[in-house]
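Support reply, case 0932

Customer input (verbatim):
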Amino acid sequence: MTRAALLLTVAFTCPAFAETSGIEKDSLTLGFIKLTDMAPLAIAKEKGFFEDEGLNITLEAQSNWKVLLDRVLSGEIDGAQMLAGQPIASTIGYGTKGAIIAPIALDLNGNAITVSNAVWEAMKPGLAATDGKPDHPISAAALKPVLESYADAGKPFNFGMVFPVSPHNYELRYWLAAGGVNPGLYSADDNSGQIGADVLLSVTPPPQMPATLEAGTIDGYSVGEPWNQAAVAKGIGVPVISDDAIFHNNPEKVFGLTKDFAEANPNTVKALTKALIRAQMWLDANDNANRAEAVEILSRKDYVGADAAVIANSMTGTFEYEAGDKRIEPDFNIFFRSNASFPYYSDAVWTLTQMRRWGQIAEAQPDAWYDQTARQVYRPDIYEIAARELIAEGKAAEADFDFDPDGYREPTSAFIDGIVYDGTKPNAYIDSLTIGLKSGQMVLGGDVVN
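Our regenerated output:
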């Protein structure tokens, strides 16, 4: 057994040390949406990691992302799995206002874009293929002939996404814009996001995506698992690209709580963070060796409640596009490796750049504002305290973590269009993107002005 494997074995099998001391509130209710990347919460409960820290946790499914956020802000629930954009938008007052912090990221990647069978059949003739299977990644440029046919017939082309400040919205928009399709803008007096759009994007709750597609209300959607693989299983749609192919290791979910709760209950938050880190380590341990067990847990009705085989398609290192076209994708869901759980400021800044690009942030802001906003929300200081306590207790090893001193990932060009993102230079990045607002522009009366 390698040293790394031995350390992970020790972390998951050694007797529990004393629970986190000084916990201010030991019984908590945490919210989630029925998606496979709620896994860290389910695993922390089912494997006893919450209990080890002295916490009695109730996990409660929420009907949609707005209800989830509202209930955290009102104190009806103590914290929740959140979209990466939710704590950021809430803190700056876009939509529901309230100070939310994120002491830990829950995962990277995990989403895909699916289109109806009819749209897929119209896209296929223009795609390059190898051995009879389409080459990936598929550009949104392949959608243009379909959009032209819809326009000629006087029909709108509708995409569903899960929430206006979701990674799903920004990934879908990024993919469309990289292929030369305008996904539309927001403005201070028009929150539809459809100003100047070639396609119409609107909100559909994740579990309702397949049924809405089947009913013909939408022509495609951007969602997390298992709802893309559910479309394949039901024979009603085809995933065309995963979000990892749009933006490699993109920020996806975080664990969010109010700033007031965190300040009043610092040891409770530390205990929650420790338990979630251990769950994430378990999920990624030994090349995903525990994922089959995780699939069984997630398939239970109290969690995701979808068919285990459908959940397994993405959770165990593969992803199915067309029926029978199953490809190896070991990083479709990442929970711990690649520093997935560290709440990087640069991940928050990327979300802010997309909010600004599409007009949700109406006016230009200096680079320093992006950094200051990220630091209000993402809290690597809390994460590091929790992780170092796990190391001291022998539940993790120093080598498992990268305690980045400035909180910024290295610049990356790992996007479908190859454009370089440097989180320390957000305005230069915004200006480098072809479609969308530039740093000095805003939308007034439906027009873009400088």
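We compared this against your earlier run and they match. Two observations from our side: The longest helix spans residues 266-288. The radius of gyration is 21 Å. Please reopen the case if you see a mismatch on your end.
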